[in-house]
Structures are given as C-alpha cells and as structure tokens.
Specification:
Elements (H helix, E strand, L loop, with lengths): L1 E6 L3 E7 L5 E8 L8 H19 L4 E6 L2 E3 L2 E5 L4 E4 L1 H6 L6 E5 H11 L8 E7 L3 E7 L2 E2 L31 H4 L1 H12 L7 H9 L8 H26 L3 E5 L6 H14 L12 E3 L6 H6 L2
C-alpha cells in the first residue's frame, strides 16, 4: 500500500491507498492563519505523526506528496499560497521517515488521478484545473502530461486577466486566481455576509442553496456569482482557445459548489461566443475523485 499526502493552501490530507487507488483510511487537518506563521513545523510534525501511526497498521511501500507550487528534485522551489521557498521537504521528512518519498505539483497529481480513474479517463486530450486556495492546472495530451521541461509549467492561476489588477502573492498584479479561485469567491461572499473565516465552506454553500428574495443579501450574492462566473469563463476560454481539449475537468473545493456554478459557466462560454473555434457545447465536468484527487494522484 501507499500513502498519499495532499498539502493544500489551507489543509493537509493524508490517506492510505490500495493498488487500485481506493482510499482505505484518511485523516485531514485544516491549516489556520496562525499556523501559517510556522508552516514548515506544522506540516512536518503532522505528517510524521500520522505516517508513524499508519506504518504500525499497514505495510507501506512508498509515500507520495502533492503540493501547490513549483517542485524540482524533492524541493519546493516556490509555493506562494503556502508561503514556501526553496523548501527541502523530502530531505527533512526522510530524517524521521525511512520510506521512499516522492513529491509533485498538486494539480499534476490530481490530473493524473482523474485521467486514470476519474472524469477524464475517456479523453485523450484534456485540461484539468484545481480551484481552491489558488488555481492549479495541467494539460494532458495522448494520456500523458504535457512535458514542460525542467519546471512543471501550466501555472494557469498566474496568467494575467486584469491589467494593474489585484496584487497576487506571486508578486504580479491581476493574476487569474485572485479573481477565480474558490478562496477569492468565498472571501468575497464572507465580506458580503459580514462573517469571518470561521464560517466554513459548507456553511457558505448552505447559504447559497437557500438564497432567495427574502434574503437581505440576495441581490449582492447573485451579482457576486455572476461576476465569479465571468472571471472563470475568461480564463477557461483562453485555455480552450490555446489547447483545444476534448474535455475540461475541475477539482478542488469547486466540486462542492457544482450545482451553483457549473451550468452557468458552460452557458456563459457558449452563449457569449468566447471561443475562437465555435462549439455547440463544451464538456466541463467536476472531478469524480472530488477533493481527494491530489492525494490519490500523489501515489501514482
């Protein structure tokens, strides 16, 4: 069996996977704003503690880690959403864990998992997006990840869609993820509702489901949804115009909001004719593996 670890911008998920990608057991931790001030210690202590527990229960052959950002030879060169730079995570963990560890960009891991087991397995050419704290991505051509050389590339979240726009953690202005990540949407929704970050994504989804004209925030919420769809459609149409995929898969916490966004997103792209090569329909599907895609893909 293998251990898959998904390090997100706001969570750590660790699971035991069998040879068919099935999760046998999983544990998860939310990373608080305070903990981000000492993020390396938080990551390493949690992983070491949970892995040691799993090793006593299961025969583990390998550990795979999925992490947002640029990864090279076991080192996280840059992860803007976790505030990490030149982080030798594999070396640090191997001082305590004597099991082979591999690490890769989280969107690439999720794309591999969805291509093998999930929503993209019927297509040879596809794009996969992870919409969460940021926006990650991958391109699959003939069932293989697009080879971008020494660096992982496909940093879709950092293509600029707004000149002199909001300042991104990467240092640039107007990056797509500042407008179309799920974090951006949730933060804007919390601001409208005048609630803090303790209001969970699940609570926010419940509010959206019950939104009607009796809600004092009804108009503002609908305006926010339309604005979010517009920003999301700009980025996706750009990617379709460049790569012409058969299908697009979307993972991350977006999957929980599928009923709110997905049909509106597809209509926006098609009805407003945002594509250079006109289509009658566009295939956009949420990840079958849900928010576990990165963790499962880490073991592949």
């Amino acid at each position: 069996m293998k251990i898959g670890i998904d390090l997100g911008g706001s969570h750590i998920a660790i699971g035991i996977m069998d040879t068919k990608g099935k999760i046998i057991e999983k544990t998860e931790k939310r990373i608080t704003t305070t903990e981000k001030n000492n993020i390396k210690k938080v990551i390493e202590e949690y992983i070491i503690e949970k892995v040691e527990g799993f090793v006593h229960q299961y025969k583990i052959s390998e550990i795979g880690i999925a992490i947002p950002g640029t990864v090279k030879e076991g080192t996280v060169l840059k992860s803007v959403n976790l505030g990490l730079k030149n982080y030798t995570i594999v070396k640090n963990l191997q001082e305590k864990i004597k099991i082979p560890i591999k690490i890769r960009n989280d969107a690439k891991c999720a794309a591999i998992a969805e291509n093998v087991y999930g929503t993209l397995k019927s297509y040879k050419r596809s794009i996969f997006l992870t919409l969460g704290t940021g926006i990650g991505g991958a391109v699959i051509i003939n069932n293989e990840l697009l080879d971008t050389g020494a660096l992982p590339g496909c940093e879709f979240g950092h293509m600029i869609i707004e000149k002199d726009g909001k300042v991104c953690k990467c240092g640039k202005k107007g990056c797509w993820e500042k407008y179309a990540s799920m974090k951006a949407f949730k933060d804007n929704l919390r601001e409208i509702l005048n609630v803090d970050e303790k209001t969970s994504g699940k609570d926010l989804l419940d509010i959206l489901r019950k939104n009607n004209k009796e809600n004092p925030y009804y108009t503002e919420i609908n305006k926010l949804i339309e604005q979010y769809i517009e920003y999301l459609s700009i980025g996706i149409s750009n990617l379709v115009n460049i790569f012409e995929p058969e299908a697009i898969g979307i993972g991350g916490s977006f999957v929980f909001y599928e009923e709110i966004f997905l049909e509106k997103l597809k209509r926006k792209i098609i009805e407003e004719k945002l594509l250079f090569n006109e289509r009658k329909e566009i295939i956009i599907q949420t990840a079958i593996l849900g928010n576990d895609a990165g963790m499962i893909g880490a073991t592949l």
